[in-house]
Amino acid sequence: MKNTFLFISFFLLAGIIITGIWWTPIYWSFIIVIPLFFLGLFDVYQSKRAIRRNFPVFGRLRYVMEGLRPKVQQYFIESDTDGRPFSRIHRSVIYQRAKKEMDTTPFGTQLNVYENNYEWLNHSINALHMDASCEDPRVIIGGPSCSQPYSASILNISAMSYGALSKNAIMALNKGAKIGNFAHNTGEGGISDYHLEGGGDLIWQIGTGYFGCRYPDGNFNPEAFEQKVNLPQVKMVEIKLSQGAKPGHGGILPAAKLTEEIARIRLVEMGKDVDSPPYHRAFKTPIELLNFIQQLRELSNGKPIGFKLCIGHRSEFVAICKAMTETKICPDFITVDGGEGGTGAAPLEFSNNVGMPLRDALAFVYDTLTGFDLKQHIKIIASGKIATGFDLVKNFALGADICNSARGMMMALGCIQALECNSNKCPTGVATQNAHLVRGLVVEDKKTRVANFHQQTIKSAIELMAAAGIRHPDDIHRAYIHRRISPDKILTYLDSYPYIPKGSLLKKPYAKQFELLMTISDPHSFTPNFSNLNWDELEWARKPMTN
C-alpha cells in the first residue's frame, strides 16, 4: 500500500501540473492535494500506528469511525430499551420531567414483562388518593448524639466534585437544590466557591485526601475542618470510605492539571501530584473510625456525621456494627453505594467487577443494622442509578430512607450520555473544564430543570406508593416488589432478602447467613479473623497449604 500511495501521489501531482498548462484553475486543487500528500508521507514513515503506516491517509478513517461509533449506536441502532448504562426510555423521562414536558407513554410498555429480572410493584384495590399521601416526605437525620439534626428530602444530589464537573454544572445543581429544598453532596473535591454561591444545602464529603481540611502532608487538619464545617450551608458531613465506581482504588491528580483555584479549594501545594490513597490515614480500625466520627461531630457542634461505602468484605461492615455496640458511638447516616459504578471515571475492571451491587448491599446493610438493633438511630441513603420514581420505591423497599442521584441529576442538566466524562470533551459542558464547552451550560436555565426533575420524580414515587395503598416510604415492605427470575417463577424482594429479627445479632444463635460473619469479624480490626473458626466443621472452607 505504501508503494501504491507513492505511485498515486506522483501520478496525481504530475497530472495536475500537466493539466495546468492548458487550464490553470486546476492549480487550486493543490490546496487539498499537497496537505494530503505530506500527511500520507508522515503516515508512511511514522512507526507507532501500523494501520496508518500500511494504509496512508485512508487508515485514519478507522479513528474517525471509532469516534462516530458511540453516536451512531445511540441515535440510529440501539432500541429504546437496550441503551447502557441508561436506556433511552430512562433518559427521555429525565429530560421530560426536567423540562416539565409530557412524560406519559402511549400504547403500553416496551419492556418484555416475561423476561428474567423484570420487576414490578403490586398495586392495591384500596389505593389512596394523592391528597392522602405526603406530597413532600422528609426524613430527619440525626441520632441521639446529634444536636443539629437535618430534615432531608427523600431525593438529593449524589457526590460529584468540582473539577469532575464544571463550575456552571456545580452552580446549577446547587441553585436547583435551593429551589427544591434538597441537599447537594460536594463530592470529595471539597467545598468550592461555586457550591456556596447557590445557597443550597450541602453535604460535605471528606475522602481519603481530606481535601479542604488537610495538612500539607495529607493528614487530617481539625482546625481547617472546624472552620468550614460550621458554615451555615453545610448541613451534614459524609466520610467516604469507598465509592461504587472504583471501590478500593485511590487516585492521583497530576501536578500538570492542578490549577491555583483547585489548590486553594483542596488545600494542596502547587507543583506537586495530589494523592488520594485507597485508605484513610485518620483511622485504621472500626473503633478508630467511630472515634473519628465522634471527633467530627464535636468539631461541627453536633451536625449529622455519616459515612459512605460500597460494600466489599461483608465482615468489615459487621465489624463496624460490633464497634458501634462496644463504643456506643453511631453515625447518623450511612450512604450505600452500588458496585455498578457512577459518575467517577474508573478502570474497566473496577467498574465491572469490584464491589457489591446496590440491591444486595442495601438489603445487607439494613439487615445488619437491624440485627444489632442500631437501625433506629441510623438513616440509610441509597446511591446508585436513580432515574425514576420506581427506582426510589425499590430502594425504600430494601431499607433505604433516602436516595441520592448523580447521573440522573447530570441528565437533568442536559447530559446526553456521550460517555466523554473522562476526556474533558463533554459536549454539554457538564463534565469538562473546557471554558468554551462550559459556556454552553446556562446556569439560570439548568437550575430550574434540576429542581423540576427532583419534584417530578418524587411526585412519581408518591403516585406509585398511593397506588399500592402506602402513605409514606417508611411503610414500604419488601413483599411489595416482585421480580421474575425464570419464565415460571416469581420472587418478591422478601423472598430474595428475608428480614432478620431486630436484635438477633446481639446474642446466639445468629441468623444462619450471619454465623460465619459474626465469627470472623472484629471491632478492633478490619481484617477478618479466621482463628476462631471450628475447622472440623468447616474443612471444606480451608485453603490448602502450599510451599
UniProtKB/TrEMBL annotation:
Keywords: Membrane, Transmembrane, Transmembrane helix. The keyword Transmembrane helix applies. The chain crosses the membrane at residues 5-22, 28-45. The keyword Chaperone does not apply. It holds the Pfam family Glu_synthase. Residues 120-470 form the Glutamate synthase domain. InterPro entries: Aldolase_TIM, GltB, Glu_synthdom, YerD. Belongs to the glutamate synthase family. PANTHER family: ARCHAEAL-TYPE GLUTAMATE SYNTHASE [NADPH]. This is FMN-binding glutamate synthase family protein. The lineage of its organism: Bacteria, Pseudomonadati, Bacteroidota, Sphingobacteriia, Sphingobacteriales.
